[in-house]
Design brief:
This protein is 67% helix and 0% strand. By secondary structure, the protein is mostly helical. It starts with a helix and ends with a helix. Keywords: Apoptosis.
Length: 384
Amino acid sequence: MAADDAAEVERLYELGERLSSAKDKSQLAADYEAIISAVKGQSVKAKQLAAQLIPRFFGNFPAHATLAMEAMFDLVDMEELAIRIQAIRGFPLLAKNTEFVSKIADILGQLLASEENVERDAVHKALMSLIRQDVKNSLQPLFKHVESGSEIREKVICFLKDKVFPVKAELLKPQAEMERYMTDLIKKSVLDVTRLEFKLFMDFLRGLSIFGDSAPRESFQELIEIIQAQADLDAQFNVSDIDHNERWISCMHMALPIFMRGGSSSKFLNYFVKQIVPVFDKIPEEKKLDFLKTIAASSPYSTAQDSRQLLPSTVQLLKKYMPGKKVEDINHNYVECLLYTFHHLAHKTPNTTNSLCGYKIVTGQPSDRLGEDFSEHYKDFMER
């Protein structure tokens, strides 16, 4: 068997040398076919050599492209580590034929799950080489694994985080076109992710130039809409659904920097008023402050219309947590958040304060309701 192995390896070397020295390699198609056929043989060393030679001459025999690709896919499926690594290293050479890039990226993506460090390192290098050749067709199948929730999705996300995202400036050219392409891939992929994964993707998006400081307001609103979808603002609020509650708080924290840059907080604030305030008493004590903090932090950036909607709920909560008589168990953290929110909302919609708490601020509008007596409201609120 050793003699047969040596003879087979020697034969492949001769075929490779003949192809290397030939001026018109297309005349030696039978030699290339013989190299491909070695993949089906018994010799491990011959298969390893075939994994090296098939990519080297791949571009010279377009008619054999499919046959060569199938042979390479067979090689990365073999038990011998040395064969698999050699085949993995050869894949970027095959990617010069753009027809196969997506399939190669998909196969390499699956190999990210390898438990062998040396193999995983080879996969990382091959994938990055592939991505540098063809960003779109390489990344699309990787994001498909994330979007579909395949068993290797976590491995793919780690690869994106550690290898791809840090070199986005190098890869995403032309910048505007490729940043838009990445944004669309991510929007499809974040429909079912963990909070940490979602934060990773959102941090990446916020670092793109199309969402930079000079971007139009519509761009910020696009980011807000991605966060709104993650917060599931169309669902009924369920106090006992801890995951949904924490996701809402986490999404509000992520949205705050975008509110500051012009993104609308309307949908979040409306959800708080209609869904959360009516059941606020039932929210676990350790979570109430988190809800109040996010509302307080967003209140400076609310519109007058949103302030008008949120202010009555703020006053309602203030009356609950800021009692009229002195008591010992006042939660000053709650009161601080609510007073902060109250002042930021009230100065944007001053003609609503008279009917809510007796503060008369003249704006000249009928909604000032100056002819009505709200002195009891004022007395009650001042006591508090």
